[in-house]
């Protein structure tokens, strides 16, 4: 404040001197320079006040403004009567909470802004994601005040986060017909990364693994909107950036697991819920329907019934014998015996009430390079497709082919095999990954290097590897009859089935999943 007053006096005195001499140019330059210095000092002062508020509560800022800042940490403790509440919840000066808020104010805020710009289901699921992150922040706030919970308390503390994550997954599943389904899937596949708080002793790689789980769908978004709407491209980059930032955050502040406070209290007692998300989400469900009125039926006098039952065997003496002409049948025509079959002269003509089943129109085959992407689509029984004019920045997209063989030469970025039947693919080298989606009886052979492969919703896949690709990483989902064929020294291949059956157990409040073999 003294610096500001000093600069103000300099401005006034200099203006008076220059005004008398008529140096208008020097006067304007001096005013501009002084204004810049004043703005810089005010900004520094505001930052100092914010830091004091975090350390000592709102009362500290008032005392600073009055010129009587606390003289010791004891004064700060006396001033703070309740924790300060910021935009993301309870304020804290703990370094890993400050770093979390920086992430929320950076990549996460950009993601929320882009989601609002796109609107629709994307904006709705973004608000659900915001609830997940706020709940995780409340969990971390609890960790600053608590010692590590025991196995009995841990599931109760994790329950709010689990419910928020499940809400995101269920929203995606209930909106499969949405035109933004790829956006919803990219979010749903990656959001389990928030479960890193249960992973020990190295949670950072888990964040990367879960964040990468949505890459399949983010690639689809980039492919669809690259030349149409850049806001979707930015949205994708921001979503991926969140998990890159989170991985660095976890690696720095929670290297071997959540950093609990050894001197803190019981976590279950310190756990508080996350603040409510901003308004604008789905409306609350309507109130329950009123209970239906219960009608009173007239009571039946059963005394006569019990009186007849007490007669014993004589109760049936008044019944008549049933003869053949009195019997009925629900289908009397069956009594008439079999009839000779009559050949129909012509099939029934469909009427307006019985619609005729229509087959989808057959689309023409496509094989061309568009930009940096090769398209091989709707090919049938074509076994001579060769792509040889390739480069590292190109990709290949093979779609709706049947009984086809595609050969790709050279080194490319990636290949996608989508919705194909009895299709074979042979290629040399890939920089990124091979993706096999919604295929039947696919055969793939790599002659060079393949770093990773993902197989999703596929029934039958034979993947022949080269010696350079033995270190391949395979991610599978909802697929069956998958085999890796590893080359042997004698030139033959050893067939190794990829597990399809798993066993999951709960041990120490955590899930442990192991692959199992089907007996027999």
TrEMBL record:
For the keyword Membrane, the answer is yes
Q: Which keywords does this Swiss-Prot/TrEMBL entry list?
A: Cell membrane, Membrane
* Family from the record: Belongs to the CAP family.
Species source reads: Meganyctiphanes norvegica
Q: Where is the composition biased (Polar residues)?
A: 63-78, 342-357
Annotated ranges, domain C-CAP/cofactor C-like = 364-498
Gene Ontology CC entries for this record: cytoplasm; plasma membrane
For biological process, the GO terms are: actin filament organization; cAMP-mediated signaling; cell morphogenesis
Q: Which InterPro entries match?
A: Adenylate_cyclase-assoc_CAP, Adenylate_cyclase-assoc_CAP_C, Adenylate_cyclase-assoc_CAP_N, C-CAP_CF_C-like, CAP/MinC_C, CAP_C_sf, CAP_CS_N, CAP_N
Question: Where is there biased composition of kind Pro residues?
Answer: 275-290
* Region listing for Disordered, in residue ranges: 56-78, 264-300, 317-364
Main location per the UniProt record: membrane
Q: Where in the cell is it found?
A: Cell membrane
State a single Gene Ontology molecular function.
actin binding
Q: How does it sit in the membrane?
A: Peripheral membrane protein
Q: What is this protein called?
A: Adenylyl cyclase-associated protein
Cross-referenced Pfam families, in alphabetical order?
Answer: CAP_C (PF08603), CAP_N (PF21938), CAP_N-CM (PF01213)
């Amino acid at each position: 404040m003294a610096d500001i007053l000093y600069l103000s006096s300099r401005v006034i005195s200099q203006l008076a001197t220059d005004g008398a001499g008529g140096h208008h140019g020097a006067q304007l330059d001096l005013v501009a320079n002084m204004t810049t210095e004043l703005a810089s000092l005010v900004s520094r002062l505001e930052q100092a006040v914010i830091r004091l508020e975090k350390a000592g509560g709102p009362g500290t800022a008032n005392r600073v403004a009055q010129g009587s800042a606390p003289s010791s940490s004891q004064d700060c403790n006396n001033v703070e009567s309740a924790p300060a509440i910021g935009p993301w919840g309870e304020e804290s000066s703990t370094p890993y909470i400050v770093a979390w808020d920086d992430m929320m104010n950076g990549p996460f805020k950009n993601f929320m802004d882009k989601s609002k710009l796109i609107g629709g289901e994307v904006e709705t699921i973004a608000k659900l994601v915001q609830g997940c992150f706020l709940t995780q922040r409340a969990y971390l706030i609890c960790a600053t005040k608590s010692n590590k919970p025991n196995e009995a308390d841990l599931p109760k503390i994790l329950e709010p986060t689990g419910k928020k994550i499940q809400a995101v997954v269920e929203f995606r599943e209930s909106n499969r017909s949405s035109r933004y389904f790829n956006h919803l899937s990219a979010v749903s596949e990656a959001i389990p990364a928030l479960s890193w708080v249960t992973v020990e002793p190295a949670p950072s790689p888990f964040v990367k693994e879960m964040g990468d789980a949505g890459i399949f769908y983010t690639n689809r978004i980039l492919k669809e909107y690259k030349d149409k709407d850049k806001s979707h491209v930015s949205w994708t980059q921001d979503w991926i950036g969140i998990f890159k930032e989170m991985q660095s955050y976890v690696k720095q502040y929670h290297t071997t697991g959540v950093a609990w406070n050894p001197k803190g209290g019981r976590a279950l007692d310190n756990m508080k819920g996350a603040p409510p998300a901003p308004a604008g989400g789905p409306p609350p469900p309507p109130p329950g329907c009123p209970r239906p009125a219960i009608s009173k039926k007239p009571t039946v006098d059963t005394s006569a019934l019990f009186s007849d039952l007490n007669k014993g065997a004589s109760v049936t003496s008044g019944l008549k014998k049933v003869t053949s002409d009195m019997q009925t049948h629900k289908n009397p025509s069956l009594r008439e015996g079999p009839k000779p079959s009559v050949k129909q002269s012509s099939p029934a003509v469909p009427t307006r009430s019985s619609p005729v089943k229509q087959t989808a129109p057959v689309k023409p085959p496509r094989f061309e390079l568009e930009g940096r992407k090769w398209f091989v689509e709707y090919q049938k029984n074509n076994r001579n497709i060769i792509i040889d004019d390739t480069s590292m920045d190109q990709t290949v997209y093979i779609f709706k082919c049947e009984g086809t063989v595609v050969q790709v030469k050279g080194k490319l970025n990636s290949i996608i095999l989508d919705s194909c039947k009895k299709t074979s693919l042979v290629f040399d080298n890939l920089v990124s990954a091979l993706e096999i989606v919604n295929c039947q009886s696919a055969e793939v052979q790599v002659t060079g290097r393949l770093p990773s492969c993902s197989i999703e919703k596929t029934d039958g896949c034979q993947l022949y590897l080269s010696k350079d690709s033995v270190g391949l990483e395979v991610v599978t989902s909802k697929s069956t009859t998958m085999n890796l064929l590893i080359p042997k020294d004698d030139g033959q291949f050893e067939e190794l089935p990829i597990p399809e059956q798993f066993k999951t157990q709960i041990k120490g409040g955590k899930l442990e999943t192991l692959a199992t073999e089907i007996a027999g």
